[in-house]
Each structure stands twice: as structure tokens, then as C-alpha cells.
Write a structure and sequence with these properties.
This protein is α/β, with parallel strands linked by helices. It is 28% helix and 28% strand. Bound molecules: S-adenosylmethionine (SAM) and zinc ion.
């Protein structure tokens, strides 16, 4: 995939130890193998995105295989659609889903996340793909260079996604549904607010091909209970009493409920 300089927008020459543009801007390849293309002046905080603790918890949990049905659905869907070529995963975290998807489909993978911790872990574990620390709002990729863009439990920036996708390229969006992790929610909250959530949005510049509900149950024990909490936004909302109840939970059977929306760039 063509990667552009975040300062001047010209193409970067990817040398083994640093990437350089014709204007002389250069970006070191970190020891672990990722490249930080997030200009300091565009950061809203010193360490944007998921924290080290969130990254580690999610990694432990996903490596436990509890969400393997989501990875399988992504792979089957991409296979059915005959997708190949360049895969860009935005908000890739530690790369659990996108590395499985790219391997199964033989696609060239670029994973992008605003969290340096996340791409550091991804790059340390998975050699071969390109790992970038960058923002979804300003993707350092050439226009029309991506065959499949994925955003899994992460953000959606339709205009920017449309720009980097090839004509007729696909966008896979996975959103948590309202009844996602009800078991966890019923432990940590006294009252669960069941307001309706739109899991099948309309996106300007995209045609929705299909929406696939993904539902399955799983059981976590011991530390995986805390890991599950730490990888959800509930970790910021939990109160003292809820945290105490969760600490006393040694085994939890819960159900995942999410939606895979398949969009095509028009
Ligand atoms: C809930 S996590 C999902 C991670 C991964 N897709 C998964 O499902 O395992 C959301 C990710 O989006 C990243 N993120 C948040 N804001 C972002 C932005 N503006 N640009 C790129 N990534 C962002 C976070 O750092 C985090 O890794
Ligand atoms: Zn430049």
C-alpha cells in the first residue's frame, strides 16, 4: 500500500530502518517494527488511544479464543465475497482479527491504531504486516489504495474510509449490539439502561451489502473476568459497588452480540 508522509503528503520511501519522503521528512522504524506517523502537534493527548493495561487485557482475553466466532465470521464473509489484495484495519489494537483475516485470505495487511502501545504489541507479535501509529481521521494512505477496510469495535470515519478505498472496495464494520455482554453489565450496574442502539447505520458514499448478526455465549474464569471488563468501555463507568461485585465473580457465562455490516464504496 502507498504510505504517505503525514507532514507533506508525498509518498514515503520505506527503507529498512526509516521511512523518508522527497522533502526529507523521516520516520524511524521502531525496534519492534512499527512506524509512528502521528505528528506530535496533531495529538490531543500525550498517549492517545487505548492504554497499556487495556491493550494487555484485550490481548489476554482474545488470545484465550473467546471471540474466535467473530474472526471466523469475518473470514467466511470475505471469502464469500471473493475479496483479495490490500487490507487496512483501522483501530487494529493488537492485531488479533486482522492478522487472522489477512492470513486466511492471503491479503497484504496494514494495521493502524492511534495507540502506540497497541501497535507496539501487534508489531512485536506479528512480523510481516505493516503496523502504523496514526489516526483514523487522517489515514496516511494514498487515495483508492485499499480493497478491504475493517473497523472492528472501533470508530467509523466514512469520508476518510471512502477516500482510501478503491472504487467498489469493501468496508467491514463490527459494532457491539445493545444486548452485548448482558451478563457482565448485570453484575457491574444496578440498573441497565436499554436504550435502542442503531447497529445498522447508513453511510454516505457507501451501499450496504448485508448485515450479519453474530451471537454466541462463552464462559470466563479467574483473571479473564477482569480482562473482559478492561477491554470494554464499562471499565470507565463502573462504580465502587459494581467493581466489588465483579471482584467476587470467579466464573461468568456471558453472551457476545454484535453486528457485522458489509458496505461497498459507491
Ligand atoms: C475497542 S478497541 C478495538 C481494537 C481491535 N479492533 C479489536 O477489536 O480487538 C478500539 C481501538 O481503536 C483505537 N482508536 C481510538 N481512537 C482512534 C483513532 N482516532 N484513530 C485510530 N485508532 C483509534 C484504540 O486505541 C483501540 O485500540
Ligand atoms: Zn514529507
Amino acid at each position: 500500500m502507498e504510505i504517505l508522509c503525514p507532514i507533506c503528503g508525498k509518498q514515503l520511501d520505506r527503507r529498512p530502518d526509516r521511512w523518508v519522503c522527497p522533502e526529507g521528512h523521516s520516520f524511524d522504524v521502531a525496534r519492534q517494527g512499527y512506524v509512528n506517523l502521528l505528528p506530535v502537534d496533531r495529538k490531543r493527548s500525550l498517549h492517545p488511544g487505548d492504554t497499556r493495561q487495556q491493550v494487555l487485557s484485550r490481548r489476554e482475553f482474545l488470545e484465550g479464543g473467546f471471540y474466535a466466532p467473530i474472526a471466523r465470521t469475518l473470514i467466511e464473509t470475505a471469502r464469500e465475497l471473493g475479496i483479495s489484495g490490500e487490507l487496512l484495519d483501522v483501530g487494529c489494537g493488537e492485531g488479533y482479527y486482522c492478522t487472522r483475516l489477512s492470513q486466511a485470505l492471503g491479503m497484504e495487511l496494514t494495521g493502524l491504531d492511534i495507540s502506540k502501545e497497541a501497535v507496539r504489541w501487534a508489531a512485536g507479535k506479528y512480523k510481516g504486516p505493516t503496523w502504523l501509529c496514526a489516526s483514523a481521521a487522517r489515514i496516511p494512505a494514498g487515495s483508492g489504495s485499499v480493497d478491504l477496510l475493517t473497523s472492528l469495535f472501533a470508530l467509523t470515519q466514512p469520508e476518510e474510509y471512502r477516500r482510501v478505498l478503491k472504487e467498489n472496495g469493501f468496508f467491514f464494520q463490527v459494532l457491539a449490539a445493545q444486548d452485548h455482554l448482558m451478563g457482565l453489565k448485570s453484575i457491574i450496574y444496578d440498573h441497565i439502561d436499554l436504550k435502542q442502539k442503531d447497529t445498522v447505520p447508513t453511510l454516505a458514499g457507501f451501499q450496504r451489502v448485508k448485515s450479519i448478526p453474530i451471537r454466541f455465549s462463552f464462559t470466563v474464569e479467574g483473571e479473564q473476568v477482569e480482562n473482559l471488563l478492561a477491554m470494554t468501555p464499562h471499565v470507565y463507568r463502573i462504580g465502587k459497588a459494581g467493581a466489588e461485585r465483579l471482584r467476587n465473580t470467579t466464573r461468568l457465562t456471558d453472551s457476545a452480540s454484535c453486528m457485522l455490516n458489509v458496505f461497498r464504496r459507491t
